[in-house]
Amino acid sequence: MTGRLHHVGPVIIDVVMTVSALPEQGGGTFASSARSLPGGGFNVIAAAARTGMEVVYGGAHGTGPHGDLIRSALRAEGVGIAHPPRPEDTGFCVALVDASAERTFVTRLGAEMDLPLADLRTLRPAAGDLVYTVGYSLLPGPRADELLTWIGELPKGVRLVLDPAPVVGDIPAETLSSVLARTDVLSLSAAEAATVTGTADLERAAALLTERVGPAGVVVVRDSAEGCLVATADTAPRRVPGFRVAAVDTNGAGDAHVGVFASALASGLAPVEAARRANAAAAVAVTRHGPATAPTAEELEGFLRSHGH
C-alpha cells in the first residue's frame, strides 16, 4: 500500500445507548445497555488502519477524560497523533440505537473543533497521500475558513477525501463549491446527495456531482444495504451491490465504508473494486454493536470469500 491517510476531521466520544424505541417528546425510557467509545472521525480512522493503511490523526483533541480515551484508542490502532491536546475536553455524542438498528444523535462539540491553520501547516502530506475531512469542519466559523485555506495549499498529488455528512445543507454554498472543486474522492449518503443536487434519483445525483469535484474525482453515493453508486467524469454511475446481512447497529457503517474505500484506493484498486470492499466492510460493521466496528483486513477477506469474491 502506498500513501498515508491524514485525518483532519473531528474525533469525539460516542455514548451509545440501546433502547427499544425513542421516547415521545417530554417522555423517557430505559436503555438496555450503554457504552462510551471513541466515535465520529475515529470510525473512519479505525477502518483505514485495520485494513493496513498508515494513518495520522491531524485533528484536534482535548484535555480531560474524553481526550484521554481518544488518544488511548488511536494508539491502540497504531495511529500517529500530530498535535498536543487543547485546553478544553473533547466533545461527545449520545447515540440512541433502537430496535430497528436505526440511530438518533445528540452532539455536544468540544476541543476537536479548535484546529488552527498553524497546526494544519505542521502536517506534511506528500504526493500519493490522502487527506480526509468532513462537513462538520466546514460549518461557518474561523476554523472552517482556515481549513479551507489549508486545503487550497495542499500539494499536487495529494488526494482530498470529503464526507460532507448530514450537515451538508448547512455548509455555505461558496465553501462547499470550493472544497468540492479540490476533492478527489467524494463519499456521501443517498440523502446527502439529494440535498446537494436537489434530486432523489441517485444515478442523476452521482452524475451531477462528478461535474463539481476535481477533474479526476471519484463520486461514491452510499445507499445503505443496497450498496453504492460509483461515478467519475469519464464513467457513468455504476451500481455496486451491497451484501445482505442481519443488521444489529448501523452506527458507523458509512464511516467504515469511507475508511475502507480510501484504504483500497491507496492499495491501487480501481474505484469499483474499492467500492465492493467498502460495501463488505459496511456489511460486517452493521452486524456488530458499537460505532467503530469495521473489520480487520483478515476479517474482510474472509467475508468476501464467504460471499464468492
Describe it.
The chain has 309 residues and is an alpha/beta fold. It has a single domain, classed as UDP-N-acetylmuramoyl-L-alanine:D-glutamate ligase (3-Layer(aba) Sandwich), CATH 3.40.1190. The chain is built from ten helices and 13 strands. The strands form two sheets. Strands 5-4-1-8-9-10-11-12-13 form a nine-stranded mixed β-sheet, sandwiched between helices. Strands 3-2-6-7 form a four-stranded mixed β-sheet. The protein starts with a strand and ends with a helix.
- What is the count of structural domains? 1
CATH topology call: UDP-N-acetylmuramoyl-L-alanine:D-glutamate ligase
Average pLDDT, all residues: 95
Rg, rounded, reads 18 Å
- What oligomeric state do the depicted chains represent? single chain
Helix count?
10
List keywords for this structure.
alpha/beta, 10 helices, UDP-N-acetylmuramoyl-L-alanine:D-glutamate ligase, four-stranded mixed sheet, 309 residues, nine-stranded mixed sheet
Outline the fold blueprint.
Elements: E1 4-7, E2 11-18, E3 33-40, H1 41-50, E4 54-57, H2 65-76, E5 80-81, E6 92-97, E7 103-108, H3 117-120, E8 130-134, H4 142-153, E9 159-163, H5 173-182, E10 185-189, H6 190-197, H7 202-210, E11 218-222, E12 228-232, E13 238-240, H8 253-266, H9 271-285, H10 297-306
Parallel strand pairs: 1-4, 1-8, 2-6, 4-5, 8-9, 9-10, 10-11
Antiparallel strand pairs: 2-3, 6-7, 11-12, 12-13
Helix pairs in contact: 1-8, 4-5, 6-7, 8-9
